[in-house]
Amino acid sequence: MTLHWLVKPKDPAAFHPSFIKFLEEGVHSGTSKKDTEIRVSELREAILPVLKEDMASDAEFWLNSKAAMLLALAVLSIESSKNIVEAFAKAICRPDWKIKVNNEEVLAVEDAGIHMCLKKLALMDKSAEYSLGELKNGWQQTVAVSLFLN
Hints:
Helix content: 40-55%
Oligomer: single chain
Keywords: RNA-binding
Organism: Leptidea sinapis
Order of helices and strands: HHHHHHEEH
Shape: globular
Domain CPL: 2-126
GO biological process, one term: regulation of translation
Strand content: 5-15%
Pfam family, one: CPL
């Protein structure tokens, strides 16, 4: 959750409004030497490249739980790359894509949290610079994620 706050502070998809309000009060306490926007920008510059590199190289990890997927969606909402989108598409399009829930393997699309994150990914895909629906190199041009919306 700390990483999520550093990537996308005040994200209502990940944080309760009372928690956001509590942290906002701390920001305005007057003890910080830098403006909030500058601080957020500097922190993002430090962590986004590392997160993006890891998301492209280990998409399975980022798609195996709701918490990891929410962080991945936060990163993608700020900055994306073709490598990440391709890696995610390859993992999502696998018919045997499974995750562990309560020590039991289930199809990822059957998990409510993953399903919700896939819907958010599909919605983000409509306005993204790199779209799941535009991938070439042997992958179908139809967006596999849209199959899960029904």
